[in-house]
Amino acid sequence: MMRGRGLVNRLAMMVAAMLVSGIAAASARAEDGYDLWLRHAPLDGEVLARLAAFDGPITVDSADPTAALAVDELRLGLDRLRGAQVQPSDTSKPAAFQFECDHRGVKADGAFRVTSSSNQVRITAGAPIGCLYASYAILRELGQGADPATLALDEAPAMPLRMLNHWDNPDGHVERGYSGRSIFDWWHLPEKLDSRMIDYARANASIGINAVAVNNVNARAFMLEPRYIAKLKRLADAWRPYGIRVFLSARFSAPKDIGGLATADPLDPAVQAWWQAKADEIFAAIPDFGGFLVKANSEGQPGPQDYGRSHADGANMLAAALGDRGTVIWRAFVYQAEDTTDRTMQAYDEFVPLDGRFADNVIVQVKNGPLDFQPREPFHPLFGAMPGTRLMLEAQITREYLGQAIGVAYLAPMWKEVLNADTGRGGAVSDIVAPVGMAGVANTGSDRNWTGTHFDQASWYAFGRLAWNPALTSEAIAREWTALTFTRAPEPLRRIAAMMAGSRDIVAQYTAPLGLAHLMGTGHHYGPAPWVCDLERPDWNPCYYHRADRQGIGFDRTAAGSNALAQYAPGVAARWADPATIDSKYLLWFHHVPWDRRIKGGDTLWERLSAEYAWAEINLRARMQGWEALRDHIDAERHAAVAADMARELKDARWWRDASMAYWQSVNGLPLPSGARPIPEPLEAYKARTFPEAPGQ
Ligand code: GCW
To answer: Which of 57, 143, 413, 572 has the fewest CB within 10 Å, making it most exposed?
Structure first.
């Protein structure tokens, strides 16, 4: 009897324990990616033990809502890090975390200092937002296993404007979006605010992002109407405590489209008055409205040139309407259909003559490279060439040209490449943009994990971290993100970060080898289509960019060709002028090279091109094996999702190779280099593939 009852009791206890752990595991660790890098997985062992001494209360000297959030976020994060061991704080003890959010010795721009002793962490900031940033920074450190007793941080944002640009349309479709529908629910605003809007603000604040342009630069004028201002106000109010200011993409022709005027000429007094009244109306609802983001006279968008006025005329008119309350962000992504010698040269040609003519509250936003967010481009020659103008960097977090949320492509290395580039004109790109800012075209969507793939979260994270501190290395950011998002275990962490480090290079290797660009499918920009040569605009054709003919391939941008090289400082141009010495990753960007020319490394160009594709495939297979070996270290749901992403990427990479090689062969008439895998289908079969289902168009 006794023994029997003992057994029953033990069984009951086991069932109870299973239930408890099952429930705890399910609620704390539903690993679908929604929590991003803010999941705060429970600590264990020594690190957890060290946190035990910090059981006093959290105190704050400010009643500001942002300061309150700093406390809440820290408490929430600490509770999660402590996992099952969470205790209510012992209020009889001195503060374990002591916030001073109005400290005169610290700048008010978000800067903070953190010092600690054996049982107390002291946070000082010049403004509440610094306290909030400090909470996230403390959690980031603890989440990586730091000792709370030795925390010592002294941080300030490098760039004042750390911004996301959403290409989200009011109907919920996201241009170049690959992670579901838009996260903005314009239909239910302003009455209903989706809780995702708060989680979005938390995620952004945790990486220092402080500005969001909510709508597509291909803008609809009606988003400036009063009912949309009311919707925007609801977002602005919700995000204000997180230090995020809202911006609107403004359609330049709005005075005509919705204002009843006959013109949108920036020098017309009625147009000026219309924008002035519009700005006043917005500021009355949203006193800290950031300003307007404008795509003008680009890809069919209206602009000042429609009236014979310059970009400066247009930007300055809007800047006057905003006054010192806000900023006009004017995009330098422009190219005219008529001028097709070399599309990459047009922004420089149009904007350099305007240097010094933009109002103080105008920022010119320049893409990382002179073409269009390709897998690899040299830095944009405008950086350094407009010393009298505030320039900011525009990067693309969404992977329009880098696989579209298929596979893994961690983009920090690409942004570091441009940030670190020496312009030869008074500093690196980061020196030029740091006093202004950096914008990233967002990759967020309604997908549960926000970004389509789990690894795409890393690029969002890295974008924020680099805008905060462009000196961080992409490797360090990858390690940080991996520890917070996947695992702190040193060896798996090291391997995942290494996988991330090379991922963008692999995509470039099979989509844009040796500096080729713009070889993708028309419209949706998915997959290979180097054969397209007959689109109405020459500069929309892949042929325009690769210039492949029987003799060779590549765009001659030397003095013998378009001479785009001359837009760079002489020292920079000299590095790229000689096809024999240029870094091979830029070879075909700047040079038209014969197929049989022996290039660096000894192979002919044709052999090397073939090899690039083959290496990409080998790299992708090795990565898949590496991921498989991590199975025991990653939760099953995310492990399987990533494995599926990787399998799809391998398939796509093989397709890119097969279709591209088939086409190059059709142009050069050469046999495949020895050892190259046969091409399984005829060129026509690759040409015939269509993708009406491709997202983001
Ligand atoms: O890369 C191109 C995209 C367009 C985009 C444009 C731009 C918003 O294909 O979809 O339009 O750049 O940056 O304006």
So the answer is: 57
